[in-house]
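Appendix B. Chain record.
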Amino acid sequence: MRILVIEDEKRIADFVARGLEGAGFAVDSASDGAAGLEMTHANDYELIILDLMLPDMDGLKLLEKIRNRQASPQVLILSALGAVDDRVKGLERGADDYLGKPFSFTELLARVRALLRRGQPTPERLEVGDLVLDCIRRKVTRGGEAIDLAPKEFSILEYLMRNAGQPLSRTMIVEHVWDVDYDGLTNIVDVYIRHLRGKVDDRWSKKLIHTVRGTGYMIDCREKAVENAAEEAPK
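Structure tokens predicted for this chain:
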């Protein structure tokens, strides 16, 4: 899931971005309102974290512009303006949540996850065969056995399972999970898929993660899908 942080104070922006990336999100940052607005037009974000005191634009004005878009993401205001009147004004102008500075990153992360659950019409529990992913508790099991995944591994698996039966290119996976452009050279997706296979597939006779020749990867338990997928990548 992609998140945009619009914050002019670099120390705070970097702190938030590093924390969210460590939790498995892809994060972009903008240091002023104009750059933030341009990025919302160029990319689809599930959530925006918005500071109100920007150097070039009032944050509430920017919020209105974001809300005028046809596809409007969840917006969490993160501001030093923490008085009750400021919070009320922000929520009335269209924010989905409001957190004052200084703040605890643990609370910020909890609010981010709550907003993303609210904005996602997708199931809270994903299943492919005997593989189960709990999106809320961020737990994975296969055949009832718990599987421990790193944040990026969890994000990739969740993306695959939300699109079960659909081939996903390496570009799509990188753009969804990382905040970098895929340049056709990196093997980072292949590395993480190998890690996932080691945890999700290796101990089971039925393989779920498949390589789609010339495309990327997919997850499926149906025999026909397995037959149509390209050969499994060597372990």
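Further analysis of this model is presented in Appendix C.
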